[in-house]
Each structure stands twice: as structure tokens, then as C-alpha cells.
């Protein structure tokens, strides 16, 4: 049986689209972004489209969302360093605290396609000042803010993108580095420090603007992949999340950073498709030539061609980030 249509995601909300090329029935959970992403491989063509210089201080960027022509980026402003206490933790089964909290301020910025700052809100609560990867569910932004150390604690906020009004939904006993809202199952999913744990909370939506409520205690399972640490994740299609991340590896001839994008099936917690990203900020030049494109904040959406994706990256170097735009086209050799 073949499906002669697809679902398209507008800011995380699925809507019916017109006829497209015939796709296997199993693709019915895809939106236009995941449909193309699953066709991208190591032979894909990456084209740099634009570098947008940001004239205001971005600090250490973490999560990126695009709604129409408006962008939202979360960032941490570090005011005092953290100091190691000598404890060793695997950030998976061992919840030990290995450093002091330091000090800082957590921000959510709104800006337009020309880089103009439209608004900002501070999301700081004492030692809880490090925002993570953010998600948009078609109505609200979801922003986790944690202590800047593993195995600590986090506040999970719901933010109205029209007003930037923030509401604390719940707190979690772990450092949550990114969240996605799975509207189809009524769950919120989070990744811990280094994305070693994948958390799930059951969420009961509120009526109107009434606050959602966590109805079951959070549970976590080990992340089955370990080649990169997820930094920013976004809900897509039906119960998928698309995550970007990076990891640094040492070799006998030096170290290198490997970036990656993963499509994760939220029903199983398993990776559906993986694309390694061997590209760097400033295309390997500038003050930090080894900084991977997927080091921090990213956003993906359908590209100008039916077989392409438009990807936005916003990884900072020395507390300042530009917005880098790439078009990714699948290889024509199949």
C-alpha cells in the first residue's frame, strides 16, 4: 500500500499537504523536514548560503527556534567560573556533583532575519542559570534552564513567543540540556548533561493558557548512541525529535571535533537516521577553526528545493555567535 501525501510541520504542528511523490506507508509519521533528512547521507551537498552578523551580545548560545521570519535563541552569560572538587562522575549512573555552581544569567533572545534584537527575557533562578536546547510545539516555546554542572537540577519553562512571558512548569532533579514537547503522546522529553540520559515526563495540557501539569514522575533511560552529545533538539513529524550535537576525540596525531544530526524515534528512544557533520564555524578559519557547526544551537526546515533542507547554525566563539545558513541537498547518485 502506498501513501500519496505527507504531513508538513509548521512550527511543530502537522498539517495536511498536497500530493507528493509516492512514499512508503511507514513514512506517514514524517514531516517535510524529516522526509528529506532521511535521504541525506555522507554524499550530500552542503552549500553555504549566508552568514548573518549579530550586532548585539549573544553570549554562549544553546538552542535555536525559527517561527516564520523570527528567531529565538537561548544563551548563558557566565559571570563567575565553576571550580572542580575532584569528584569523578560518569554522568549516567553516578549522580555525583563534580564542581561548584559558578554564577551567571540565563537569557532567551528574539531577533529578526536582519539580526535586529526584538526582545529578551531573563530566566535565572539563583544557581539555575544555564538555558539549554529549546523547542516549539506550534504554540509555545519550551526552555530548560539548569545549573551549569552535571547531575544537578533544572527548571522547565513554557514561554509565549508572542509576548515572551515565561511560566515555570516544573523542576527536575538533573541537568536537562534540551527538551522537546511530544504533543501526540502528551509527553515532554529531555536530554541530560552530554545527553547520556533521555528523560520522559507525562504532561497534562492546561485549558487555554492554564499551566500544563506533570502527571507522572520523570523516568530516564540511557541514550543508546554515544558518538556525539546532543545540544539542541526539536520535535518533528509524529513522535520524532531531530537533535544536533558534537563530541571531541583524541588521536595520536591530535584531537578533532565531530558534529552530527540525529533523528530519534521517541516511541522507542532509538535513532532513526544519522548524519555526521564534518563542517566548522567560519569554514575552518577564524579564532576557533575547530568549532563544529553543530556545536550548539541549530534549526532545520524544508529548503528551497523539494530535495533540500535549510539549516541554521548559531555556535558561539568567544561569547559571540553569527547565524550561519546552509542548504543541504541529497546526493543525486542513488
Description of the molecule:
The protein has 334 residues and is mainly beta. The chain has a single domain, classed as Neuraminidase. It has one helix at 32-37; strands spanning 2-3, 7-10, 13-16, 23-24, 45-52, 60-67, 70-80, 103-112, 117-122, 128-131, 135-136, 141-147, 154-159, 166-172, 176-182, 187-192, 197-204, 213-214, 219-222, 229-236, 240-251, 254-265, 270-277, 297-302, 308-314, 323-329. The strands form seven sheets. Strands 10, 11, 12, 13 and 14 form a five-stranded antiparallel sheet that branches. Strands 15, 16, 17, 18 and 19 form a five-stranded antiparallel sheet that branches. It is globular and about 45 Å long. The two termini are 23 Å apart. Mean pLDDT is 90; it is low at 1-25.
Structure, briefly:
The protein has 1 helix and 26 strands.
Amino acid at each position: 500500500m502506498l501513501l500519496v501525501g505527507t504531513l508538513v510541520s509548521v512550527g511543530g504542528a502537522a498539517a495536511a499537504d498536497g500530493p507528493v511523490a509516492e512514499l512508503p506507508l511507514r513514512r506517514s509519521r514524517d514531516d517535510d523536514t524529516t522526509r528529506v533528512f532521511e535521504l541525506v547521507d555522507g554524499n550530500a551537498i552542503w552549500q553555504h548560503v549566508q552568514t548573518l552578523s549579530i550586532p548585539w551580545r549573544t553570549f554562549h548560545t544553546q538552542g535555536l527556534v525559527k517561527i516564520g521570519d523570527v528567531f529565538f535563541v537561548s544563551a548563558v552569560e557566565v559571570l563567575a567560573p565553576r571550580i572542580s572538587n575532584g569528584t569523578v562522575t560518569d554522568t549516567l549512573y553516578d549522580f555525583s556533583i563534580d564542581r561548584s555552581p559558578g554564577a551567571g544569567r540565563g537569557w532567551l533572545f528574539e531577533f529578526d532575519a536582519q539580526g535586529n534584537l526584538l526582545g529578551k527575557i531573563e530566566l535565572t533562578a539563583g544557581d539555575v542559570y544555564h538555558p539549554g536546547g529549546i523547542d516549539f510545539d506550534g504554540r509555545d516555546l519550551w526552555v530548560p534552564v539548569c545549573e551549569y554542572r552535571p547531575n544537578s537540577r533544572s527548571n522547565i519553562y513554557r514561554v509565549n513567543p508572542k509576548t515572551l512571558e515565561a511560566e515555570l512548569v516544573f523542576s527536575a532533579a538533573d541537568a536537562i540540556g534540551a527538551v522537546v514537547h511530544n504533543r501526540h503522546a502528551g509527553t515532554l522529553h529531555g536530554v541530560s548533561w552530554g545527553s547520556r540520559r533521555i528523560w520522559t515526563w507525562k504532561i497534562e495540557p492546561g485549558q487555554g493558557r492554564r499551566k500544563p501539569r506533570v502527571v507522572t514522575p520523570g523516568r530516564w533511560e540511557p541514550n543508546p548512541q554515544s558518538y556525539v552529545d546532543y545540544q539542541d533538539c526539536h520535535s518533528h513529524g509524529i513522535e520524532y525529535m531531530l537533535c544536533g550535537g558534537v563530541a571531541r576525540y583524541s588521536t595520536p596525531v591530535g584531537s578533532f571535533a565531530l558534529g552530527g544530526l540525529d533523528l530519534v524515534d521517541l516511541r522507542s528512544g532509538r535513532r532513526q537516521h544519522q548524519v555526521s557533520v564534518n563542517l566548522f564555524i567560519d569554514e575552518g578559519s577564524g579564532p576557533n577553526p575547530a568549532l563544529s557547526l553543530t556545536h550548539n544551537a541549530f534549526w532545520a526546515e524544508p529548503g528551497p528545493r523539494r530535495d533540500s533542507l535549510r539549516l541554521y547554525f548559531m555556535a558561539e566563539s568567544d561569547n559571540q555567535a553569527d547565524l550561519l545558513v546552509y542548504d543541504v541537498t541529497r546526493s543525486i547518485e542513488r
